[in-house]
Design a protein that fits this description.
about 0% strand; mainly alpha; single chain; 8 helices
Length: about 150
């Protein structure tokens, strides 16, 4: 039921005639959303693969830890998938493209700031709040997971 409501919100932004096309094709609502996600993820992955020439060039000069390189690329792809999901959610919540972009940007930026706030809190007044919310912040943020993959573990 909730899934149908979320997918119905995705239709609200399609006031330019795309709704009729989507309803006449024999494709389910979930397939549209998954296709949008996978298409965007494929574009980001292709863009990241274009940077693969840099580690190859550096490995020609000296010894390179390929575990860290592959882990870094895997971490970037997974972090991009998380941010794409946030963007699609923000896009489905409104019918205006500009508002959807601003909401998606702010949502991703908040998760990025929370991720960096976890590493930089040293103020004594924030210490109690930090201790109480440290577990929650670690659970929400992607920075800890990315650094684990970045070192090649």
């Amino acid at each position: 039921m909730k899934e149908k409501k979320l997918l119905a919100l995705a239709y609200l932004k399609l006031a330019d005639g795309m709704l009729e096309i989507m309803q006449t094709w024999p494709v389910s609502d979930l397939s549209w959303v998954v296709g949008k996600f996978l298409g965007t993820l494929a574009l980001v992955t292709l863009t990241l693969l274009l940077t693969a020439s840099f580690p190859i060039a550096i490995s020609a000069i000296g010894d390179l830890d390929w575990g860290a390189v592959i882990g870094g690329y895997l971490g970037l792809i997974l972090m991009a998938a998380a941010y794409i999901s946030l963007g699609i959610f923000a896009s489905a919540a409104t019918s205006n493209q500009v508002i959807a972009f601003i909401n998606g940007f702010l949502l991703c930026f908040c998760f990025y700031i929370i991720s960096n706030l976890n590493n930089r809190v040293n103020n004594h007044t924030m210490f109690v709040i930090y201790i109480m919310s440290q577990h929650t912040i670690r659970f929400i943020t992607s920075n800890r997971r990315f650094t684990i993959l970045d070192v090649g573990i």
